[in-house]
Amino acid sequence: MNENPSPTASEFATAEEAEAYDLWFRAKVQRSLDDQRPAAAHEDVMAALRKIIETKRDTNASDPMEN
In terms of residue numbers, what domain contains 26? Predict the structure, then answer.
């Protein structure tokens, strides 16, 4: 068995699937680049996510069906 997959091998079954994915991905990146909303600071995003995680953890800890 070859442990190093070919860098030119496609993960898609057909060339059409690969092309459709490429078009979708490029459009998604372009929409992001074109987005005029202000960027969120990494620290602010991480703080918000930590709060969500803690809330879920607290909710699950008090749920007797989860234990």
Answer: 15-62
